[in-house]
Amino acid sequence: MKTTLFNPFEKYPDRGLLLAGIAFTLLGSFLGYWCRARFDGILDLHFTLSVFLYEPFVDNLINIFSLAFILFLTGKYLNTKTRFIDLLIIGMIARAPIYLLSLMNIGGSMSKMAEQFLSIMNPESSVTTVEIDKIMAILMQNAF
């Protein structure tokens, strides 16, 4: 179990891990499209009212390659035997839990709530108690 979690490269071949990473990425991107989620940062997720099919795929590709590239440069500095493919696989598999967060927006509930919050907020002033009361009412309305 310890080998599986902390060093899967000892137990599983590179090809199997790469295929698992690709499967997670494709599944996560479809999940992002279905739940109207944008993965617009390496550890970032935003819900919107509408998402085009290609947007979660592009977001994930940019995030995965950015993460792998940064880790590769760091790895090459520390160890000259670092391989890019290993870090690419890690970047794909490590993002799997983030994809599950998109399930919070099934039916668009989170994005609708965010739009309601933004419609209440006055950008020219700080939050007042009346606005806080309205926000709490929206939270209670959407919680049940």
Give an account of the 3D structure.
The chain has 144 residues and is mainly alpha-helical. It contains 8 helices and 2 strands. It has a two-stranded antiparallel sheet. The longest helix has 25 residues, at 54-78. It is elongated.
- The coarse overall form would be elongated
Structural class: mainly alpha
Biggest sheet statistics? 2 strands, antiparallel
Could you report the average pLDDT, rounded to the nearest whole number? Answer: 83
Number of helices: 8
* Poorly predicted runs: none
- Percent helix, as a range, is 55-70%
Distance between the termini: 40 Å
- What radius of gyration results from the CA coordinates? 20 Å
Percent strand equals 5-15%
Strand adjacency order, main sheet: 1-2
Strands, count: 2
> Could you give the order of the helices and strands?
HHHEEHHHHH
User: What oligomeric state do the depicted chains represent?
Assistant: single chain
